[in-house]
Amino acid sequence: MRITTLMTLLAAPLALAACGSGDDAEMMDDTAMADGQMAGGQMPMDDGNMPMMGSDGAMQSASAEGTVTAIDADEGTITIDHGAVPSIEWPAMTMGFEADEQLRNDVAVGDKVSFEFATGESGSSITSITKK
After folding, report:
1. Which CATH code is given to the segment(s) 60-131?
2. Does residue 22 have a pLDDT over 70?
């Protein structure tokens, strides 16, 4: 075997090892993990944490607009596909809100609505809802 071929065969594994594991994922440092930030500034979605309360732990009130996607009388909820709620740092999403019977009877699936709600550790409840 030629010496250049032998050297190439011996050097190739060393060169590959020096390049790293081949994993293109970015590594997070402990500071990024502590801040709840992922590489690229995205929030992790697997921990279930979403800002809901004020810094003192009290319930927060907010308003939003969206479309009713479901009404569940047994669960006492109205599910709404709503836009972002900047006042409490929520992105646009579809979620269920607790709602009393009167509020559930005021709307139907497919209605575009404006609504006020309270949110905290115990969940989120619609306090008023109006068809648009």
Report:
1. 2.40.50.320
2. no
